[in-house]
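Appendix C: a fully annotated inverse folding record. The material below is reproduced so that readers can follow the format used throughout the book. The structure is listed first as tokens, followed by the designed sequence.
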């Protein structure tokens, strides 16, 4: 049978020549493809043991091969410090990145970051899979020969007010949230600690917990005659930090995440956010214990076990993002107080859903009156000091604000055990019910007005505004008990006579008498 075209020519080539040339070509292609990371032409990741893929490199003058070689050499040095099971690394090179970061197992940086080594802490983070900023900054500096400026650190920690840096809270390593000097002090601290733990203590910094005792030892070794104390000892442990193109930072905890989309008044720097998260966690624990100790069986009827509360995503913006989103997405707006968490807890775990006065009154009572370590106290203290309830408040409310302050001073003078928070809430309620004054702002509208409740839907008490409701609820707790007051939140339509032994009208008159007798 005749063979035509290329088939004939191929048939006529001696078998030995075909085998030699054919298999040599196949072997060459296989070695090139297998050894070369995608996106890295002619670059073999043979030394590091990690396949490197560089993407998003459209900018002119960028040499992918050179970049792959640089990353590979850095990986080899990092793996000499600590082993990793990671076998592949994606690097997204873009020009719209302010600080290198790791997201979804991809290291994101600029071409300049790759060239001058600014990407190395993120490389350590991705390679050693550590979530602690102080660790990946410290290991990076130590591995790549950035000797810590210990003279600068001795001078820094000689000032007791600068001890906050040694808390190593993650945002201390985010340049946007600290001054340049604070960021450098945090970075140098991390490098020195890694060196000290590795060379002096002979411990693996990735697994050995860095306790307050070890921090004190390090200070002594450094030559600093100071005692280290952590104001938030234990309360800020377990948080992780993420960056993204979509937000400034996301802080992840065991039961909630806090996503900062922009700078807000209570989160303009690392110390503000430390205080915020401390108050959130401490306040929640304080309230949990209070409900458990004082709420009795009724608390279990109002709220399910807190361990059953879904993981909440808090959306933290300069402006309210809409708290009603919690119903669909388990994401709520948070504006610097525990109210957001309590609202989520009530909406997601509460058995009865309604909008009547007692529900928000309970939240305001727990947040503004009971939990003292909270931003409500800051707000009331500012009002106490400057005499204005809200910024940019109209002049027409000046006389009302003075009346509120006069009542609050009188309450505090007559009852030394009264908190500033409680005095302010009672004073605003007194201005409304005793002086017929409109408080204005978010506290001024009644529940009937705010929720368009019909006479059929309304409860007795829904004509109270928010501060009046919180004051009345607090009086019910003090006069009867938290367990009885919680029955208002556990019943679809409460019977005041059955719960408290008096009608709503009689109870309200007693509460107004309390406000009047305690006031002016």
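Designed amino acids, in order:
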């Amino acid at each position: 049978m005749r063979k035509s075209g290329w088939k004939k020519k191929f048939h006529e080539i001696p078998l030995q020549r075909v085998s030699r040339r054919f298999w040599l070509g196949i072997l060459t292609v296989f070695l090139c493809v297998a050894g070369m990371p995608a996106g890295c032409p002619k670059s073999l990741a043979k030394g590091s043991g990690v396949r490197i893929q560089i993407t998003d490199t459209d900018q002119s003058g960028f040499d992918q091969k050179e970049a792959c070689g640089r990353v590979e050499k850095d990986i080899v040095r990092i793996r000499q410090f600590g082993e990793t099971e990671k076998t592949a690394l994606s690097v997204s090179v873009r020009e719209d990145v302010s600080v290198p970061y790791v997201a979804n197992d991809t290291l994101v940086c600029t071409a300049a970051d790759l060239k001058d080594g600014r990407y190395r802490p993120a490389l350590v983070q991705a390679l050693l899979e550590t979530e602690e900023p102080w660790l990946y900054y410290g290991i990076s500096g130590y591995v790549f020969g950035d000797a810590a400026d210990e003279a600068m650190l001795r001078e820094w920690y000689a000032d007791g007010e600068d001890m906050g840096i040694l808390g190593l809270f993650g945002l201390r390593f985010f340049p946007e949230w600290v001054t340049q000097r604070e960021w450098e002090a945090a970075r140098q601290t991390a490098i020195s600690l890694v060196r000290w733990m590795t060379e002096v203590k002979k411990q693996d910094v990735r697994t050995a917990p860095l306790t307050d005792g070890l921090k004190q030892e390090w200070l002594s070794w450094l030559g600093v005659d100071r005692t280290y104390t952590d104001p938030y000892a234990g309360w800020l442990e377990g948080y992780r930090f993420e960056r993204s193109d979509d937000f400034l930072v996301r802080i992840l905890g065991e039961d909630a995440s806090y996503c900062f989309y922009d700078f807000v008044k209570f989160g303009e720097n690392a110390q503000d956010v430390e205080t915020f998260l401390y108050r959130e966690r401490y306040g929640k624990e304080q309230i949990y214990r209070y409900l458990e100790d004082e709420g009795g069986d009724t608390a279990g009827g109002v709220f399910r076990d807190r361990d059953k509360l879904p993981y909440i995503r808090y959306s933290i913006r300069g402006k309210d993002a809409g708290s009603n989103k919690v119903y669909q997405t388990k994401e709520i707006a948070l504006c610097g107080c525990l109210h957001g968490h309590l609202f989520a807890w009530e909406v997601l775990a509460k058995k009865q859903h309604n909008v009547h006065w007692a529900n928000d009154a309970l939240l305001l009572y727990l947040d503004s009156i009971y939990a003292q370590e909270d931003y409500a106290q800051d707000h009331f203290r500012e009002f106490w000091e400057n005499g204005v309830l809200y910024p940019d408040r109209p002049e027409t409310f000046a006389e009302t604000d003075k009346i509120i302050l006069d009542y609050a001073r009188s309450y505090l003078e007559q009852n030394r055990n009264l908190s500033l928070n409680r005095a302010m809430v009672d004073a605003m309620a007194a201005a409304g019910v005793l002086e017929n004054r409109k408080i204005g702002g978010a506290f001024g509208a009644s529940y009937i007005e705010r929720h368009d409740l019909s006479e059929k839907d309304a409860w007795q008490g829904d004509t109270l505004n928010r501060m009046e409701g919180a004051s009345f609820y607090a009086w019910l707790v003090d006069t009867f008990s938290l367990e009885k007051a919680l029955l208002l939140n556990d019943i679809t339509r409460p019977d005041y006579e059955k719960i408290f032994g008096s009608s709503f009208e009689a109870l309200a008159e007693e509460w107004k008498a309390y406000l009047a007798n305690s006031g002016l």
